Structures are given as structure tokens and as C-alpha cells.
Amino acid sequence: MTDKKERIINTALILFANDGYNAVSTSKIAKEAGVSEGLIFKHFSNKKGLLDAIVKGAECRTGEFFAPILEEMEPLEVIKQLIILPFMAIHEDSYSYWKLQFKLKWQEEYNKPNNFKPLLDKLTWAFNELGYKEPAMEAEILMKVLDGIAISILREGLEGQLKFKAFLLEKYIK
Amino acid sequence: MTDKKERIINTALILFANDGYNAVSTSKIAKEAGVSEGLIFKHFSNKKGLLDAIVKGAECRTGEFFAPILEEMEPLEVIKQLIILPFMAIHEDSYSYWKLQFKLKWQEEYNKPNNFKPLLDKLTWAFNELGYKEPAMEAEILMKVLDGIAISILREGLEGQLKFKAFLLEKYIK
Amino acid sequence: MTDKKERIINTALILFANDGYNAVSTSKIAKEAGVSEGLIFKHFSNKKGLLDAIVKGAECRTGEFFAPILEEMEPLEVIKQLIILPFMAIHEDSYSYWKLQFKLKWQEEYNKPNNFKPLLDKLTWAFNELGYKEPAMEAEILMKVLDGIAISILREGLEGQLKFKAFLLEKYIK
Amino acid sequence: MTDKKERIINTALILFANDGYNAVSTSKIAKEAGVSEGLIFKHFSNKKGLLDAIVKGAECRTGEFFAPILEEMEPLEVIKQLIILPFMAIHEDSYSYWKLQFKLKWQEEYNKPNNFKPLLDKLTWAFNELGYKEPAMEAEILMKVLDGIAISILREGLEGQLKFKAFLLEKYIK
DNA sequence: CATGAATGAGCGTTCATTCAT
DNA sequence: CATGAATGAACGCTCATTCAT
């Protein structure tokens, strides 16, 4: 991957995450990245192709966070690691990746397969192992909470949400 | 309010909710509403002004749903009514209002003050009345769950989420 | 039809006829016509739509030349009028219309139905009435000659071809 | 001539003939020919230079068809061979050469000297030898017919035009 | 109140061409 | 000889907005 191609991806990621895919023009990306506009299309064919390349790259990075949880065989540890996931994963480096991810959810036309399904299944398994009466529903509820926390972190920063880490760990892990 | 002005608002609401504010052109709104494009600007001066008018109208309607909860003085009843709120509020008539509301949350440029703050405060009060140890945090958590449910209803329909109503009522009301 | 709309059509006709449809940009048409580029698309939706409007207009004008021939019931008169047709029809006013017509023939993608078929049929009828052995072939041959003359007129002017009028009339009408 | 250079010429010829010079991009030629786009400019400096190379090559090939006619000293044989020329020359191998040739006639900017002038002169000579009253005009008329036949062959295939071969031979050779 | 002709800036994209390797 | 990254100008087209009527 050439330097300029990488600069396009990085610039576009940040701009897309901040302003939304539609609101960012390819000319702005090019200008910001210090590249000619045509180069974007040489490398990615489309504006959409550029987005795809970004998302694919992001999936690799987020996958790294998911893998250890999916492999964990201790139910309580699964729940614990899932609770602390949003607090660990959304740091400076990957902030834009996550923000883009959540923004795209509201972009009807960009219907990528649900990224979080494997985590939900694992969580259901954990609740089941622990003898919860309604493991599937417990899992979905906790996921909604963590989703909400992630959204708040992305919008208002980490600090305001940190209190929930201890609270949820206490509630679910005791 | 003239007939045509109202038609513009109603048409734009539906289009904005479905396709997003940026993706809908004023020309499409005019065509769909059966009015001239110029009329939109006579009435609302801006495309943004049209959005503001819609949001203001929406706030009135959603406020009607919030009022009885805010006036309720029985803590358990507050929680109960809040839990069933997303299942009651998001029906055909107001579906577009809510969808637009949630979509706008992700448009950075449209940063209206948090609509749900009064509800959150009331919920905190209720949990406090009921002797919960961390009423503020309990309230925020429940709000995040309900937020997540509302989002799912808007994206996938009511049916898949109905199960959570009973589950949450059982959990919080016993 | 507004003044500007008409100016767009007239300007585009001349440019298309001279330089070819693909070689003329909408921005050039707008500039030459003294109009904003956007207006072209307001009136004709497409660049292609503009071409269609021109061709439709041209068909009316060329139809006026064809009608009297198609109604003529005297075989010799049919042939005579057809021979003099290219010399009469391609004058200053309609020069661009014909040039465009012939140019579009080589534009594979623009496959309009054969305009000259009715004339060919009438000519075949005339040759048949006059007792020619192979009226269909005689008609096609004469049409090819007249086609060739029209092409030469469009490319090199009327003068060089005028001699053929007398020659052909002598040959076919005696 | 290197293999790749030849591949560029052959590919471009076919593409130009089918889609027209302007409609074919250098990138498409490169892709289709399996070479890098830069190589086209190394060899021909311009897109126009590539076209020139093709046309020059084509002139050699078409010249091979003209030579025997120009050398023929029997008037009737000249006419006969000229009549059958379009039916002989436009076969699979050289189809694209002729199609391109005729297409370029309508590109104003590509005004190459009339290729067919020597043939016309020879034909005039032949008609003169045979005692025709207006040999020059007879020659031009027959050339226009053959031109029209060539065009029809290129656009609709050989079959529909074959009938004219016998008809014209009968008419001119008896 | 309402229309619709008209605009100008910007969009995503294509293209012929250059140049370092 | 050959590549392919890179460019800049132009393209067809969309858009929010203005204004005379």
C-alpha cells in the first residue's frame, strides 16, 4: 500500500466519522489528504469503494477485540470482558473507527451484516451456563446497555461513562 | 397554517425520516407534496428552517407522551409507564417523528438539547423513592435499555421487541 | 417555450451538427447560449434529453419536405421530386438539422427508426408503376445515390453537386 | 514492431471501429490489450498518434485492394472489379479497418485527403473509354452507389446487399 | 399565497497525459 | 521496453436558493 493510498484512507475515516459519509465530498478528502482527487478513484473506483476499504480495515481491528472474548470458556469472564469492552476498545486510535461504525448503522443504504451477533451468542451461552432463567433476553438487554454506553462514550467522552463499569461489574459479577 | 404548508411539512417529515435530511432534496419534497419548490422557501426560508419546523412540531407530539409520566407521583407507576413508552409511542402515526428524532442524533450539526433529560430525572426520583442504592445509575441504565429497544423497533419493527416489555416489567415491577 | 429554452435548442443543434454529440459539452452549450448550465437539465433532464428534443423538432421540419412526395400520385413526378429533394431541403435554415441527422447515423447508440423508409416505399411503387423490371432495387440504388449527394452537399456545399440534378433528371425522367 | 505495440494497435482498431474514437479511453485500450496505459504514450505519444498509426496501417491494407484496379487496362474489367470491390474487401479480417474509415469521415477534425480519388479517376477513364457521354458524372454516381452499399454492408451485414452485385454488373457490364 | 424559470457552486467521476522507477 | 502511481482539467449532473410574475 503506497503512502498516498494510506493517507486517503486515514483522512477519509476521520472525516466520515465526524461529518458522515454523505456530507464529506471526495474533493475535501483529497484536499485534506494532500492528494489529487483523481487518485481516490484510481485506488478505490468509487466513493463507496473507499468506504468499503475503510470498513474492511476497521473490521480487522475491531475483530482483534472480539476474538479473546469469543474464545473465553469461563462464563463469568465472558461477561466481565464484555462489560469492559467499550471502555477498552474506544480509545484514541480506534475512536474514529467506532464512531463511523455507529454512524453507518443509521445509513439505511449501507447494510452490512450484524457485527455483534457472535458476541451476543457468546453472551447468551454465558448466561445460560450461569443458570439465568432467560439467558437470551438477559444477553440482549446487556448488549443494549453496552451499546448505549458506547454511544455515550463516542458522543460525550469516556469520563462520564466510567462509573458504569464498576456498577455493571458489581451487578453481574458480584 | 395553509393546506400546502402542512403538506410540505408532512411530506418532508416522512422523507427525512426514511432517507435522511441530506439525502432528500427540496425539489423532491416539492414534487412529492405537489407544490412548487419556491413555496418551501417562502414558508421556511431554508431547508434547515423546514427541518426546524418539523422538529418543533414533533416535540409537541412527543411531549404529549411524556407529560403524564412527568406528572405521575407513584414511583412504580413511573417506571412501568416508562417501560411501556417505546411500545406505545412508536406506532404508525408517530413512527416517522421518532425515526427522524433518532436519525438526527447522529447528525453532528443538529445538536438540540437532550429531549429525554426530564424523563431521566423523574426516573431517578422514582428509583430513589423505591430505595435503590444507586438511583441515578439505575435510571441511566434503564434509559439506555429503552433507547436500545426504541432503536430496534424503528429498525426491525415492533414484534421482535415485544418480549422485552414483559421481561422488564417483571424485573422492575415484580 | 421560453426564450432561453429555445436558445439552448438552437445552440445545441448547431454545435452537435458541427462537432458531434459527444464532443460538445453541456457547459459549452450553456456558455454559447448565454445560459446557466443547470438550466439545460431543468428543461431537458439529460444531455440525451436535449438531443431528443432537437431530433423531435427536426423530424417535424423534415417531415414537411417528405409529405408532398408521399401524397403525389404521378410516378414520374414522385421520382422527379425525390431527385430534387436534397437540393431543395438542405438550405441554410435546415442545414444543421440534416448534418446532425447524418452524423447520428454513425452514432451506434442512437438508433432511431429509419426515417427514409416511407420515401423508399413510395419510390419503389413509382418504379413499379413505370414498368421497371426490378423496381425495389432501382429504388434502393437511386436512394443510395441521393444519400451520397446529400452527404456531399453537407460536406462540400451545394455547388459541386448541382450538376447531378440535371444529370439524374435527364436519366430518370427523360 | 514489438508484440505489445502490435497488440495495442489491433485492440485500438477494433475498439475505435466499434465504439468510435472519442468513446474509447486509453485506459480501456490498455486493459483490453493487456498492457500498461503508459506504454501507449511511450509508443505513440498521443491518443491521436495511436489513431494515426492505425490509419496509416489501414491505408496499406486497403491499398492492396486498390492496386490491381488501378493497373487494369481493360475498361469493362475496371468497372466490374470496382463493383465487386465492396463485396470482396469488407470481410472479417478487414471489417474493422473499413468501419473505422467510414466512421472517421464524420469526425470533422480528422480530415484526411480523399482516399478514393485515384479510383474515381480510373473509373472516369473507363467510362470515357467506353464512350459514355458524361464519364465523370457516371463515375461519381457509381461511386456514390458503391459507397452506399459499403455503408449498408458495414451496418447491416453483407447478405442484404449481395443482390446489388448481380444487378449492377448486369446494368454496367451487360 | 403561489409559481416556475433561472442560477452558481459543488458533486462524483472520467480522462489523456506525465514521470519516477 | 515497460509499469503504474499520480495529476488536473473537464465532464454530466444535482442542489439549495432567488426572483419576477
Task: Write up this protein.
The structure is a homotetramer of 174-residue chains. The first copy, chain A, has 174 residues and is an all-alpha fold. Chain A has a single domain (3-173), classed as Tetracycline Repressor, domain 2, CATH 1.10.357.10. Helix content of chain A is 79%, strand content 0%. The first copy, chain A, is built from nine helices and no strands. Chains in contact: A-B, C-D. Chain A binds chain B through residues 18-20, 22-23, 102-103, 106-108, 134, 137, 140-141, 143-145, 147-149, 152, 163-164, 167-168, and chain B through 18-20, 22-23, 102-103, 106-108, 134, 137, 140-141, 143-145, 147-149, 152, 163-164, 167-168.
